[in-house]
From TrEMBL:
Its EC number is 3.6.5.2. GO terms for molecular function: G protein activity; GTP binding. It comes from Ceuthmochares aereus. This is small monomeric GTPase. Belongs to the small GTPase superfamily. Ras family. Pfam families: Ras (PF00071). PANTHER family: RAS-LIKE FAMILY MEMBER 11. It catalyses: GTP + H2O = GDP + phosphate + H(+).
């Protein structure tokens, strides 16, 4: 949620509840107006099942965010990505755009997941990869 709000408002808010939101946002990219619809789902609500399949069918692309300070948030990514690909690519031959984002880069002293691990995971699953800090 912090990363989504930072993208939408350019502000950092550190604490969020465990709620799901859909945001809409217009952005001009290379002279073209792009309308984003962002379905921000906390991990605690992102369980595999019919509601998760609806979210996946709804989306055109995916940004999966983990904390570099939380190994568990990183470890669930391969299963999430496999579920997304099976659900989305099973219907078409098109590759679904997925980006893995390691957040909290500013908390490097609390890091438990290395940048290299993130890059290797993204490479092995054919995803994009970035490390960011929503706070900075």
């Amino acid at each position: 949620a912090a990363l989504t709000v930072r993208f939408l408002t350019r502000r950092f808010i550190g604490e969020y509840g465990d709620m799901e939101f859909i945001y809409s946002h217009n952005l001009t990219v290379d002279g073209r107006e792009i309308l984003f619809h962002i379905w921000d789902v906390p991990n605690s609500q992102a369980e595999e099942g019919s509601s998760e399949e609806k979210r996946i069918q709804w989306a055109d692309s995916f940004v999966l965010v983990y904390s570099i300070c939380d190994r568990a948030s990183f470890n669930i990514l391969p299963l999430k990505i496999q579920f997304i690909k099976a659900t989305k690519e099973g219907q078409s031959q098109e590759k679904v755009p997925i980006v893995i984002v390691g957040n909290k880069r500013d908390l490097h002293h609390q890091r438990v997941v290395s940048s290299e691990e993130g890059r290797l995971l993204a490479l092995s699953l054919d995803c994009g990869f970035y490390e960011v800090s929503a706070a900075e």
